[in-house]
Hints:
Layout: H1 11-23, E1 34-39, E2 42-48, H2 58-61, H3 64-67, H4 84-94, E3 103-106, H5 112-121, E4 125-128, H6 135-143, E5 147-150
Helix pairs in contact: 5-6
Amino acid sequence: xxxxxxxxxxxxxxxxxxxxxxxxxxxxxxxxxxxxxxxxxxxxxxxxxxxxxxxxxxxxxxxxxxxxxxxxxxxxxxxxxxxxxxxxxxxxxxxxxxxxxxxxxxxxxxxxxxxxxxxxxxxxxxxxxxxxxxxxxxxxxxxxxxxxxxxx
Length: 152
């Protein structure tokens, strides 16, 4: 049998690629974000940014933040959507899955609201593909001793 040697992605690359795939379900008009919660190299839950179940999405009704010209990283409460990290934590909770001691892979750095939720959920590490303009989030994660790594 003549097989070509296939270069396998590292675990970090693999889970970030899964997060990127999950982000394709996002319904936000400004940013598509995906998140994957992983423990012991197993996916526990996923999430993407979008409106709560049963509520119309921004792709259907428009973006309140765009209309109000709210800069990225500010006034998170002025949004129909839950963030990808929030949805990943909620999905785990709905099915009785503890995320304590897990790693979350996300296509984007968490905002301060997500950072606070990740801290209290017991997430031990965050691996991101890109940054986000929220210094307070990074300060909180540092204070909570949660490791944040950026993989390009």
